[in-house]
Every structure is written in structure tokens, then in C-alpha cells.
UniProtKB/TrEMBL annotation:
The lineage of its organism: Bacteria, Pseudomonadati, Pseudomonadota, Alphaproteobacteria, Acetobacterales. Coiled coil: none annotated. Residues 166-290 form the Polyvalent protein metallopeptidase domain. One of its GO terms (molecular function) is single-stranded DNA binding. This is Zincin-like metallopeptidase domain-containing protein.
Length: 323
């Protein structure tokens, strides 16, 4: 006897990745943890992990994927930044160990729909030609979960000169933003386009001064003659919360590249405003991470060696896509 056809209403709908990830981050913030900050002790981790990258292609992960991989304990297990899919490991003759749990990352692409076409995440038929974003989830495994993968060779100073103690100073100097010292607060002033910093002696270590300076430089990147973001939000406003979240993520992304700490203390009201913003819009953390990546790339571009490396990677990626 034929089974009755399952009603459309009974079929499980597509997973809402935006809501799932936002809920995960909100839960961490509610528990008192800022999930994108690295929890290792800098003096026990050497130069610290590099930004996550694919273990086969060498491509760096960007935006929300840097945040998601950084939230895993595996990302902080050592100095190996490599991640790869099960299939990539298999094609190389390596083996993901039985029972290992993968980590999700996402890739976006744009899909053009014409009249009458139904696309993923569109919720119905098209009423004209339009472009819709499509979010795809993939599962990655960290190199430490894979047997047979060669040991990772940490790049030398010559290969990654932006991971030297002087790198942050180089970026701050080449940015063209004026830094002034004095007082007990660190802030960027849009009206005068300058960054005010406490005296260097007020910081426990030079890394703290640099990390704070880069955080304020992230705000300065929003000036009209730079990346042109809205910097008019007052403390406690939605716009202020959005900008502060982007600067926070930017400092973490830049810190990962430079090997700097990113555990800058934040007032409890900042966390409360982030929670309010994320609860209002499930896509906000994705947008914030994408914008923070653009801000981080802009700041890292002020280091000549990093700018050269980024240009080489871009040319290599374009060549691979064209092949």
C-alpha cells in the first residue's frame, strides 16, 4: 500500500544559520564571555596563532568565519592555523580521526533569479529578475584532528615581518592619524581626526598600548575620507553599539594577524548594547564581521609587507579561479 504523500507543512524547513549563530553568540555574552577573544596567555603561547587559513589552498578565511573558528577551543590549541574539509583531507591521503567533531563555516554567493524561479532562502517565486544572497554551510576540521597531515612550519620573521613587535607602530604611524598622549582615556575624536591615548607608562606592557591604539584606529578608519562610516552615534545609541562592535572585532582580527592580544576591557554597558543589537537583528553579527574584515584589511594595508602579501594572495586567487 502506497504511503500517503507527506504534506509540505510537515517537512522540516531549512536551517536558519543566521539565528543559530546569533543565538550561540548571545548565549556566550549572557554568560559573561566575549566569545571572539582569545583565551590564551600571550607569554605562554609565543607569537600566538595566525589567522585561520585553509590547510590545502593556503587561503585565509574572512569575516564571520574568522569569528566562528576563533570561538572554537581548537583555534587556540597551538600555533597551527590550518583547517580543511573531510574531502580535502581524504584527497591528500590524510585521515580525519574517527569521532572528531567538525566546525561550521559559511560562504556567500549571489544568485540571480528570473521570473518564476524559486531560489534558496527566497521564500517563494520571483516577480522579476533580482539578485539574492545565498548562504552555504561547510564543515571544517582543524589540523590537530587530522592524522597524516605534515607538521605546520611557523613562518619566519622574514616571511611574516608584520608579526614583529614594531608592526603595530608601523601601522599606526603610516595611517596618517595623529596620536596624542595624556589623560586617562583612549578615544578617537572625529572632529579633529586624532586619537587620544593615555601615557605609555600607564600600560602594563607595550602590547597593551598597541592593542588599544589599533582599536581606536579601527574607529578612525570610519572617517569620511577613509572608509566613510556613520560615526555620529552617541553613547548608548544603536549606531554607537554597531560601531563599537565593529571596532572590537576589527581589533581582534588585526591582533590575530600581528600576534597581539585583543583582550581590551570593555565597560559592561558595551556588552549590554551588543546584546540588544544582536537580539534585534539575527544578521547583524554577519554584517559586523564582514565590515570588520574590511576595516582590518584597510589597517593591515598600512604595513608594506602585509600589503604586498595580500596583493600576492589576491593575484593567486584570481589565477586559480580563472583556471
Amino acid at each position: 500500500m502506497a504511503q500517503p504523500r507527506r504534506q509540505a507543512a510537515d517537512r522540516p524547513g531549512p536551517r536558519d544559520h543566521y539565528a543559530e549563530i546569533t543565538s550561540q553568540i548571545v548565549a556566550a555574552l549572557e554568560a559573561g564571555t566575549v566569545p571572539w577573544r582569545r583565551p590564551w596567555e600571550q607569554d605562554k603561547a609565543g607569537s600566538g596563532p595566525l589567522s585561520p587559513r585553509n590547510g590545502v589552498t593556503g587561503r585565509r578565511y574572512h569575516g564571520i568565519n574568522v569569528l566562528l573558528l576563533g570561538m572554537t577551543g581548537l583555534a587556540f590549541a597551538g600555533t597551527d592555523p590550518r583547517w580543511l574539509t573531510y574531502r580535502q583531507a581524504e584527497e591528500k591521503g590524510w585521515q580525519v580521526r574517527r569521532g572528531e567533531r567538525g566546525s561550521r563555516v559559511f560562504f556567500f554567493r549571489k544568485l540571480t533569479l528570473r521570473d518564476g524561479e524559486v531560489g534558496p532562502d527566497t521564500g517563494g517565486e520571483g516577480d522579476g529578475t533580482r539578485t539574492v544572497p545565498v548562504l552555504r554551510a561547510y564543515t571544517l576540521f582543524h589540523a590537530s584532528q587530522v592524522d597524516g597531515i605534515p607538521a605546520f612550519e611557523t613562518p619566519s620573521v622574514e616571511e611574516a615581518s608584520w608579526r614583529t613587535p614594531e608592526a603595530a607602530e608601523t601601522i599606526m604611524r603610516n595611517s596618517g592619524v595623529v596620536f596624542r598622549e595624556g589623560g586617562d582615556r583612549a578615544y578617537y575624536c572625529p572632529a579633529t581626526d586624532h586619537i587620544q591615548m593615555p601615557p605609555r607608562t600607564a600600560f602594563a606592557a607595550p602590547e597593551g598600548y598597541c592593542a588599544t591604539g589599533l582599536h581606536e584606529l579601527a574607529h578612525a578608519s570610519g572617517a569620511r575620507h577613509r572608509l566613510d562610516r556613520d560615526l555620529t552615534g552617541r553613547f548608548g545609541s544603536h549606531a554607537y553599539a554597531q560601531e563599537e562592535l565593529r571596532a572590537e572585532l576589527t581589533s581582534c582580527f588585526v591582533g590575530a594577524e600581528l600576534g597581539l592580544p585583543c583582550d581590551i576591557p570593555n565597560h559592561a554597558s558595551y556588552v549590554a548594547s551588543w546584546l540588544h543589537t544582536l537580539r534585534q537583528n539575527k544578521r547583524e553579527i554577519f554584517r559586523a564581521a564582514a565590515e570588520a574584515q574590511r576595516m582590518a584589511d584597510y589597517l593591515l594595508g598600512f604595513h608594506p609587507d602585509h600589503a604586498w602579501r595580500a596583493a600576492e594572495e589576491a593575484r593567486r586567487d584570481e589565477t586559480a579561479e580563472a583556471a
